[in-house]
Each structure stands twice: as C-alpha cells, then as structure tokens.
C-alpha cells in the first residue's frame, strides 16, 4: 500500500448519514464518493481499542453485522467522531482516514472476512 495515495488531503464536500441503510456517505473534493457501511466503519475504527498501539496489535472485531450509527459529531475541522449503537464512540475519523477507508474498502473488507473465517468467528452478534 503506497502512502503516496494519501499524501494529498482530500476535503469532504458532503457527509450524509443514512441511518436506515446503516451507511455513511462521504464525498470529497477530489471527486471520490464513498458509501461506507456502519459495520465496516466500526470494525476499522481508528480507536486504540481496535487498532492497538501498533499494526501488530490490531484487534479483530466480530459480531457487528447489525451495528448502526447513532450520531456524528464534528471534531474541529479535520474529523468526525462516530457513535455506534453498540456504544463504541472512541474513534476519531479524520478526513484522510475516511478517504483511505473508501479507497481501500474492497481489500480491507475481504481481509476482514477472511480473518473472521480463519478464526471461526462470525459477523453475527
């Protein structure tokens, strides 16, 4: 994964929460638009609880298939805090991280599903 892909700061032009669909829609000034499922955002939370303090400490978060987003809270002018209905709310999603999650959705999601299967875990609660 090349860090160069993320060196330019993309700025959000639209952030829409579709609670019923459990999706966050984020459009950026570079023309990219992503519909990010709540479950994906939850299992990729930037919080220390999920990411640990180094890449080898990242935790696999099973059982979140039905998780939804309760609230979005702006954090300065650089990020948003997402409160999920499982009450996880410690991740601060920078615009750069949301852009990265959108660009890398397919590979991150496939890796997540593969890791769940390898460990005998499920997306179901």
UniProtKB/TrEMBL annotation:
Residues 15-99 form the Gamma-butyrobetaine hydroxylase-like N-terminal domain. The keyword Cell wall biogenesis/degradation does not apply. GO terms for molecular function: metal ion binding. InterPro entries: GBBH-like_N, GBBH-like_N_sf. It comes from the Bacteria. Transmembrane segments: none annotated. Keywords: Iron, Metal-binding. This is DUF971 domain-containing protein. It comes from Marivibrio halodurans.
């Amino acid at each position: 994964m090349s860090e160069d892909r993320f060196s330019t700061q993309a700025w959000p032009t639209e952030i829409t929460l579709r609670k019923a669909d459990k999706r966050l829609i984020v459009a950026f000034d570079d023309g990219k638009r992503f519909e990010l499922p709540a479950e994906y955002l939850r299992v990729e939370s930037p919080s220390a609880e999920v990411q640990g303090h180094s890449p080898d400490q990242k935790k696999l978060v099973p059982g979140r298939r039905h998780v939804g987003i309760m609230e979005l809270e702006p954090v300065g002018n650089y990020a948003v805090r997402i409160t999920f209905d499982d009450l996880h709310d410690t991740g601060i999603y920078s615009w750069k991280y949301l852009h990265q999650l959108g660009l890398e959705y397919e590979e991150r999601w496939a890796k997540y599903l593969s890791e769940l299967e390898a460990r005998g875990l499920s997306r179901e609660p």
